[in-house]
Structures are given as structure tokens and as C-alpha cells.
Write the C-alpha cells for this entry.
Amino acid sequence: MAVPSSGQLSQLAMAQECLYGTYGSGTVTGPISLYDMVNGGNTNGSGNSYPTINTGCTPNPATRGYLSLTAVTDAMGTGSTTYYYSAGVGDASNLQVGHTLYTNTALTTPAQIIYGVQTGSSATTTICASGQSLGGLATNAQGAITNRGTCS
């Protein structure tokens, strides 16, 4: 069976289709993440691990390459950390609320940032331009940017 082309859709039924090929029947353990259904696995917290599908389709699965967000320090000025994100985003200046940052190049370990700061540069690895500084970068427990911060 396949997902219907018209009418009301159900995320549960789509998960059943993804796992069993039976839209509307089969046991699914919550929560259900659309990201995991599209990209495979359960890295976004799904109760089931979904098969990898659409391997030849960009951006789904999400572009597997990565780019770097460099020299991010916490508000206390301790340490300088490089974070990674999907190459599909492009330059770090394109990062927005909702994009996910990771601590590893495999893009599997979400970054948790409470208040990040970064000195801007002309490099593609900084959010702000040369002569500016970023303050207030924050992510949630899943690594999603919740505050992009401010360049000043």
C-alpha cells in the first residue's frame, strides 16, 4: 500500500507505511519524528528506528556533508569549540532558528549551547561579518538553534 494522494493524512499511518508498508496498520512506538521517517534511524528521538529511504534524493535524506561553525565560546570565555551542521545550510551566516548544531562531524550528537559568543570574520565559518561579534547563540537539548544571537 502507499500513502494516499488525497484526503486527510495521519502521521501514525505514515509511520506504519514507513515501517511495514501498510498505511494505517501496524504497531508504532511513539514519539514519531518526521525527520527520522525521512532520513532513517531514530536520531531525532523516535520510538522506532526507521529504514533509510530516498538515499538518492537531496535534501532528503538531509545532506550528509557537514560544515563548521568555529571558535564559539561560552559566556564565561572558557574554551573555544567548533560545532558542525548540515552542508545544505551553506555558510554559517545562513544559520537560523531551527537549524541543528552538532558536536561531531557525523552529525549525530546534538550540541547544547546555553549562551555562545563568537568573533565575526570574513570566513564562511562565522555567523557575523568581520568587525562584529555574536552574542547569545543558544540551542535546545536536541541541538536546534533556539536563539541565533545578535551581531553587533
The chain has two helices and six strands.
